[in-house]
Amino acid sequence: MRITAWWRGISPRRRLLLSGAGAAVVTVLVAAVAATTGTSAAPRTGVPDQSRPGPVLLVPGYGGGQGGLDVLAARIRQATGRSTEVLTLAGDGTGDLLEQAGVLAEAVERAYARGAPSVDVVGYSAGGVVARLWVSREGGDHQARRVVTLGAPMHGTGLAAAGTALDPGACPVACRQLAPGSSLLQELAKEPIPATLPWLSVWTERDETVTPPDSARLDGAVNVALQQVCPGNQARHGDLPTDPAVTALVLQALGTTPLEAPAGCLSS
Predict the structure, then answer these.
(1) Pick from 227, 214, 235, 221: nearest CA to 265
(2) With contact defined as beta carbons under 8 Å apart, do 214 and 247 qualify?
(3) How far is residue 214's CA from residue 180's CA, in Å, rounded to a whole number?
(4) Is residue 146 scored above 80 in pLDDT?
(5) Beta-carbon neighbour count of residue 260 at 10 Å?
């Protein structure tokens, strides 16, 4: 009774402040329990419902540049009304790709903790390899509703091979990992993507960064060479996140209809 009387006697503003503080304490306690018990908001079994799309997480490429993905994220928000987040990679974005997969895993965990029904992931360039690592090593096979990769060097790129051979000291960890035949890529090649996970891989035949361009081809995915559906398209590697035809492919892939290769060039 005394506590009830005390609560009624304080001002509404003070009640609001105390309530907010209490909620914050509860949030911290829940996070602490999750950390100590190993519980996770993100599912560890099953697969997301394809009819319930959630937020879209976009993973930058080597170096962590976000400019092009910011444009794509805004277009996704405008077209779908869904929330988007362009991730900030660890360090300068040239470190261990396994560490970057951990960054993605943390973002996914936060999304599910906020009540997301699922997550979709868009990985650009090396960010596509990060997405594949997350699916294979971090439980993403149970958490991703759909994955889209753009110009991803799934089998490595000649530029990384050249950097590793000519000046190893100037080729950071991610650079060495992206060299064709690296131990990381050899291991990934033995880990097929789940048949239950819709995955779209898009690349441009005019790519001079990921060489050969069809290094982006991934067994089990819907593979689309941009110029095969949009003849004459001049997009290069750096144009992929902002090219209108690519954006249209991404938007279609993030829908709820079965993921299939387009019959022709789409328009966003």
Answers:
(1) 227
(2) no
(3) 13
(4) yes
(5) 11
